[in-house]
Amino acid sequence: MALYGPSQPLRKEGNRAEALGALRRLINCRIWPVQTGQSPNEQGTVCKIARRRLEEFMNIEHLAMRLIEGDRRALAQAITLVESGRADHRVQAIELMERVQSAGREALRLGLSGTPGVGKSTFIESFGMMLVHEGLKVAVLAVDPSSARTGGSILGDKTRMELLTREKNAFIRPSPSQTELGGVARRTREATLLCEAAGYDVVLIETVGVGQSETVVAQMSDLFLLLLAPAGGDELQGVKRGIMEMADLILVNKADGDLEAAAQRTRADYAGALHLLRKRPQDPQGFPKATTVSALQDKGLVEAWADIKQLVAWRKEHGYLAKTRMEQAQYWFAQDIRNGLLRQLETEPLKTAIAEYAKRVEQGEITASRAAAQVLAALKATTGQI
Ligand SMILES: Nc1nc2c(ncn2[C@@H]2O[C@H](COP(=O)(O)OP(=O)(O)OP(=O)(O)O)[C@@H](O)[C@H]2O)c(=O)[nH]1
Ligand SMILES: [Mg+2]
């Protein structure tokens, strides 16, 4: 829905005709709440609501414009908006996402995962600085499954990203703090799209590899990098097969000093393990690949970047990049609906109704199946028909 292009900004102090035109457009895009058969009093309230919505709308328009122009403060504000749990903010966030997508920009979205202490922050600092020196704009986001506990971990990590933090062409944002991973993930995906619209060339999405979070990061990335540490013995560090299957590039970090030989051995082990996996259609010859890096000594980073560019170019040429993004959009669409429905169960009046039915099931007054069927019928009644 394009109301105004960036070249035709909606001024806050617009004239009457302009405001009326905007209101008419609001009606057309169904934000206008007027219904037929309302009393004058009700209509007065409705007008107030409409005016407020128009103001919000103009703010969103302005925010989107500033963001597309590359204003960092606007980007930070926009991310705060998509992270908000408030229902009215969600409406604005959806509007904003639509507005900024018209910028039609594309960033390379890189997912990065690794167990605690493997060197993710150090890697992002050195790798990010290398990209910045190449003249690229880099954004760093995080999906931190433990953020509910720590309140966002990248912040504390900023000490490990001292140089990158000070770069004007780098933008670092800690993980949104929220209890449920699904919510954090959705917000990070939207933040990725905002960074992209703001003109960042590479968006690095970090996650601590402790299970489910790798999957959600892979679902918002073009490429998934797995960072590993040199193994002590010859075991494969208990990396789950599912995670291995997601990796496009395995980087064995800390390939320096005393750890160099162990890192080389580990790399060979993983190269062998990758070879045994089922071949994926989205991989050219030689991928997925295992290489060594030293984030601390800036070794292997240029080579890793060359590998990334080679893989992306191939996937782009063969249509896999676009296909993956389209499948990811489908995934998030389904995920959003699922999460939205689950949230409804936690909202009144359903919440109380469910609690009451639970009590009746407990007391044997109604069977579990009947109770569930009635709750679902009530849910259907509240959601209405599409
Ligand atoms: N020798 C060596 N040490 C490294 C390298 N990269 C990181 N380290 C060290 O490993 C430790 C952990 O590094 P971080 O970058 O904080 O690791 P992380 O994966 O971000 O850790 P969490 O944020 O806790 O998950 C630090 O002491 C780093 O100095 C490397 O390439 N070589
Ligand atoms: Mg870290």
UniProtKB/TrEMBL annotation:
Which Gene Ontology CC terms are recorded?
cytoplasm
- Record has Flavoprotein as a keyword: no
Which InterPro entries does the entry mention? GTPase_ArgK, P-loop_NTPase
SUPFAM superfamilies to which the protein is assigned, alphabetical? P-loop containing nucleoside triphosphate hydrolases
Enzyme Commission number(s) of this protein? 3.6.-.-
A Pfam family annotated for this UniProt entry: MeaB
Gene Ontology MF annotations: GTP binding; GTPase activity
Q: What class of enzyme is it?
A: hydrolase
Chain segments annotated as coiled-coil in the UniProt record: none
Signal peptide limits: none
- Decide whether keyword Kinase is in the record: no
Q: Which UniProt keywords apply?
A: Hydrolase
**NCBIfam families associated with the record:** lao, PRK09435.1
Report the family membership.
Belongs to the SIMIBI class G3E GTPase family. ArgK/MeaB subfamily.
The identity of this protein, by name, is Putative GTPase ArgK
Organism in which the protein naturally occurs: Pacificibacter marinus
